[in-house]
Structure formats: C-alpha cells, structure tokens
Specification:
Length: 589
C-alpha cells in the first residue's frame, strides 16, 4: 500500500530533480550572469575612462617643452643658419633635455621637413638628415603653429606621441621643434592592472599595451568598431575569438581560453583607440554560485516535500494498522462473548436439569408422604368398617380428605409457578396489597406472637402490577419472615413503603435467622430451600421474583445491618430484609 501511495510523490521528486533542478539552476545562472555582466560592464567603462585620462595626462606631461624651445633664440639662429657648431651644440642640448625628461626623441626640423638636429644624433638610427615633412604633426605645426600625433616611428618603429611647435622669426616660418614621448612609463604603470590594455592606431595595430606579446599585432577584422580596422597584410592578428555578444571575446593562450569583456574609447587628437579587456570570471563565478544555490534550494524543497509525503503515508498506514487492530480486537471480543454465552447456556441447561431433579425429588417426597398416610388410613378404614366402628371410619376419611387438601395445595403452588407470566397489568394500590396480605396472615402472626410495624405513606402509592399476584408475593415474603422468626427471641416484622422518582420501594424486614451469605446468590433459584422436607418446596421466592419482574420491577434480598435502612429505631442485630422495587403509576379515577 505504501509503495503505491508513494509512487506519485516519488515520480514528482524524480521529475523535479531531473528537470526542475537543472532548469532552476540555468535560469538563476542566466539571471545572475546578466546582472553581473551589467555591473562588470559599468565598472569596465569607468575604469576605461580612468585609463584614458591616465594616458592623456602622460602625453600632455611635457607638451610645454617644445613650445618653450620654439621661442628660444638659439633655435631660431640654428634654423636661419645651421652651422656645424650650432648643430653640434644643439644636438647635445636636445640630448640632455630628452634624457632629463625621459622622452624618446627631441628634434628640430627646418621648414622643408628635414631634421637638422636631434637628441639621438649619436644613435645608429638617428633622425638627423631625415625628412618627416609628410608627418601630420609637422604639417599641422607649420599650418597652425602646433601639431599633435600618435604614430609609430618610421625610423625607430617605436610608438610615441609627437608634439610639434612652429618656430617663427619675423613672420617667417623657420621650422618646427618636435618632442616624441614613448609609452614605456605608462606601460609599466599599467602592467599590474587586472585589465589588459592596448592602444591601436587607425589600421588596428597595437602600439601600446601591457601585454608584451600583443605589441605590433593587428586587431581582428571582426572587431565591432566604427570604422572597422583595416589591418595591413602580413600583420599578425591578435588571438581573439568573438563570442555571443559583440563585446565579448575569448583569448587563447597557454592551452586555456579566458573570456573578456572588451571596452573601447577613441583617444582624442589622433586615430588611436584605447581598449581594455576585463576578465569575465566574476560573471561566471556569480552565475555558478546563483545556479548552485537555486539548484540546492529546489532540490532541498523537493526532498523536504517528499519527506513530508513519506511521513503522511506512514501516518495513514499507522492509522490503517490501528483500525485493523481495533477490528481484530472487536472480532475477538465478539468471539469471546459468543463462547461465554454458549457456556452460560450450557450452565443454564445444567442448572435446569439439576432443578428438575430437585423438583422431582421434592414433589415425590411431598406427594409420597400424604399418599402413604392416605393408604394406611384407607386400609385402617376398611378394617374399622368390617368391625363396624363407624366413628373411627369417619375420622380416617376426614384425615384422608385433609391429606388430599394438602396435596391440592402443593399442586396449586406448582400451577402458580407455571402460570407466572400470565395476567394483565394495571394500577394496584401498594398500601392495599400490604393490608390485604397482613389480614390473610393475621391469624398466624398472632399465633406466633409477631409484632407487626407498618410505615405506609398517605395518600396510597399506586404501582404497576396485578392485585392478586402482588398479594401472593407479599404473603410469601411475610410467611417466610414468620418462618425465619419462629425460634427467635424477638419477633418483629417491619413493613416500610416509600415512593420517589417514579419508583416505589417496599421493604419487609424481620428479626429472624437471616440468610447465610453463601445462600444469597441462589435464594431465587427454583427449588432452593433450607427448610425440612414437607415444610417448603423452594418455589416461593422464585415465583415472587418472576412476578415482580413481570411487573417491570425487581426483588432483592439482604441481611439487616445494625443501621439497616428500614428506619427502625432499635434494629435487631440480625434478620433479613427483602426489598420490592416497583414502578409507580397514576391512581385510576
Ligand atoms: P421455601 O419457603 O419453600 O423454602 P422460598 O423460595 O420461599 O421457599 O424460600 C427459599 C429459602 O430462602 C428459604 O428456604 C430460606 O432459607 C430462605 N428465606 C426466605 N425468606 C427468608 C427470611 N425472611 N429469612 C431467612 N431466610 C429466608
């Protein structure tokens, strides 16, 4: 039963574990990832702005130096007349300044773009003698007085920021002073950062970066930039792959693949773009944690629900078991009751048979004695008749008639026993029945010197019963009392009648021998008697009991106690009390 009841919860649990848990994990992970990515993107942009400012500050740091030098009379003199001494002196001066500033190069060009003197005059790849007229910063400086440009050095191939200032004398353009600042310092400052940073030129080539192996490699064409980079043929492309969103890239390296968020910003004053790559690990971590938490929560919930279902099934089962046990108990009680009834029936049967035996013996004894006497009276009468003694014959016949009367009395009793259930019930005056019974027995009670006390209420109490039979019961009880008191020193009979709550109680108490405790339970059994043979058949109480039950009442016997409830002021120490309980009824009108 449990297995069947648990099948549904078990299937549900399995479904939740197999489908619900991964689904919840995926949903939570997706939601957390989106949330974390938004955060990360905002942070990356803020960071990028900072790097941008950083980059610009670095570039502007020495922007005033070329301006100052452009005002220098020595420079103007040099440009007007570049004698070897002037060139030499200026070379050393520029070298000194460049060293002090940490700049890549510091040089002076004439109005045709030819470099006359440079801080790297002494280096193999010196700018001296080179013409950079085509460089935008030069053109801008000549035209507008000042020019800026990011570029890769054509001679050195070292990227730098060029700041150029025009040199004028008497409204004549003499040339330009140019300072090139490298990014080594900046790159060193960026190196420990979490982000990977790179600056690309118009062609998408990386010039400045804190990832050494990316320098001079090209951005992939697919980079979502406007305008898109046009990498030179033959340039190494960065090992980037683009994932789902346009700003997400995967970078291969060392056999692993790291994923980044790409943010880009154009650097003003050039065609350069600053990019930052921010690791997506926090997003993944947050997604994983959220997924795990959601999975755990759903799994836990499912298991808890299952446990609850288990408990419910167990409880139902326990209740069913209890029901079964109760049913089994009831069945056993019914069985035992049936057995008991059977035994009782058997016992009753045995008691009936015993009673029948007793009765037969009693009747045989009662009848045999008068029969034997009648026989001898009859025999004697025949002899007396032959002798002509008529008077004696008459006496004998009188004895015979008396004996037949006694036998008739015995059979009358038997008939009464057989007839006890007949008759119709009606209102009977209990007071009247008591008076009648006492008057029937008056002669005997007087002969035995029995003191009779009655306590009967007025008006009379009416009970359910039958006149003659109630009298029969009372005659029997009073007769028995008189029998019991025959040899007693005090012979007192007390009859008390009370009525309350629809019941009348009629008690007949005597000061006789009382009843042996062992006899009390069988007092009402037919043919139970303690009297000598010929004095009692043992039917009186049995018949009385039956009659009273027919009336819907009951008859009980007890021994009187010193404070017996009969109300006597001086109760005898012993004696029996019989109590009739009858239903009261309305007095007939
Ligand atoms: P019987 O009078 O023929 O013996 P009953 O059925 O009237 O038959 O009484 C049965 C027995 O109950 C009596 O033999 C006697 O032992 C006992 N009994 C009845 N009434 C009294 C009484 N008032 N006091 C003592 N014993 C009594």
């Amino acid at each position: 039963m449990a297995a069947r009841a648990l099948e549904k919860p078990r299937r549900l649990l399995l479904a939740v574990l197999l489908i619900g848990v991964p689904l919840a994990a995926a949903l939570a992970a997706g939601w957390a990832a989106a949330d974390a990515e938004t955060d990360l993107r905002a942070r990356a942009h803020a960071q990028l702005a900072l790097y941008d400012a950083n980059l610009r500050a670095e570039l502007e740091r020495h922007a005033a130096i070329p301006l100052a030098l452009a005002q220098d009379a020595e420079v103007a003199a040099l440009l007007s007349d570049p004698t070897p001494e002037r060139v030499d002196r200026m070379n050393r001066k520029l070298e000194g300044i460049a060293q002090a500033l940490g700049a890549s190069a510091f040089y002076i060009m004439d109005s045709s773009g030819l470099t006359l003197t440079a801080s790297n005059w002494n280096a193999p790849a010196t700018f001296v003698g080179q013409n950079f007229a085509y460089r935008p910063y030069f053109r801008m400086a000549i035209e507008r007085g000042e020019g800026h440009h990011f570029a890769l050095g054509t001679t050195s191939f070292i990227p730098g920021y060029y700041t150029a200032h025009r040199v004028m004398a008497e409204n004549r353009t003499l040339g330009a002073v140019v300072l090139k600042v490298g990014f080594e310092r900046l790159e060193r400052a960026w190196a420990p950062g979490q982000e990977k940073l790179l600056v690309t030129d118009r062609d998408g080539m990386v010039f400045v970066t804190n990832v050494e192996e990316w320098r001079y490699r090209a951005l992939p064409r697919r980079l979502p930039l406007t305008p898109p980079p046009v990498p030179d043929e033959g340039l190494d492309v960065l090992p980037w792959a683009f994932g789902g969103a346009s700003d997400r890239i995967a970078v291969a390296g060392n056999g692993t693949e790291r994923r980044y968020l790409l943010s880009s910003v154009a650097v003003p004053g050039g065609d350069w773009t600053l990019h930052s790559l921010t690791g997506l690990e926090p997003v993944t971590a947050r997604a994983q944690i959220a997924g795990l938490l959601a999975a755990a929560a759903v799994a836990l919930g499912a298991v808890a629900a299952y446990a609850l279902a288990l408990r419910r099934v167990a409880m139902t089962e326990r209740l069913a078991l209890q029901d079964e046990a109760r049913a089994e108990l009831e069945r056993r009680v019914a069985e035992a009751t049936a057995e008991l009834r059977e035994t009782e029936n058997e016992l009753t049967q045995a008691a009936k048979l015993a009673a029948l035996g007793q009765m037969s013996a009693g009747i045989a004894h009662e009848i045999n004695q008068p029969l034997a006497a009648m026989r001898s009276y009859a025999d004697n009468a025949v002899v007396l008749l032959e002798r002509g003694r008529m008077e004696s014959v008459r006496t004998n016949l009188g004895e015979i008639a008396e004996l037949t009367d006694r036998m008739a009395a015995i059979t009358r009793q038997l008939k009464g026993f057989a007839r006890r259930a007949s008759g119709t019930l009606g209102p009977v005056s209990a007071n009247g029945a008591v008076a009648q019974a006492l008057s029937l027995l008056e002669a005997r009670l007087r002969r035995d010197e029995v003191a009779v006390e009655t306590d009967l209420p007025e008006p009379a109490v009416w009970v359910v019963g039958e006149d003659v039979r109630l009298q029969q019961v009372l005659v029997n009880l009073i007769g028995n009392a008189a029998d019991a008191m025959r040899d007693a020193p005090v012979r007192r009979l007390r009859i008390v009648l009370t009525a309350a709550d629809g019941a009348a109680l009629l008690s007949i108490a005597d000061s006789g021998t009382g009843i042996r405790e062992s006899d009390l339970p069988r007092l009402f059994v037919p043919f139970f008697t303690t009297k000598e043979a010929g004095e009692g058949l043992g039917l009186g109480l049995s018949i009385s009991h039956g009659i009273v039950e027919d009336f819907g009442g009951n008859l009980t016997a007890a021994n009187r106690q010193p404070d017996a409830p009969d109300g006597s002021d001086t109760p005898p120490a012993s004696g029996a009390v019989f109590t009739l309980r009858l239903k009261t009824t309305e007095q007939p009108s």
